[in-house]
Amino acid sequence: MNVELVQYDVLARELIQRVTAEMEPSEIHEWLKRQVARLGGGDESAALAWVESFDWYDALLAKRDALALLPVSERRQVDWPWPSWNNLIDPLEPGMLASVAAPDGQGKTIVVECLAEHWASRRLKVVFVHYELNRALMMDRRTARHTSILVRTLKSGTMTHEQREAVRQVRPRLLAWEGEITYLHTPGWTMERTVQELSKLHADGRCDVVVIDYLEKAAPSARQVALYGQQVWMRQADDVERLKNFAESNEVPVVMVAQMKKSGKDETWQRMDRNDIGGSGAKSDKANLVVILKRDREEDGSYSHTVHVQVDKNTMGATGAFDQYMQPEYFRLADIYQGAATNA
Question: The domain containing residue 188 runs over which residues?
Answer without folding.
Answer: 81-343
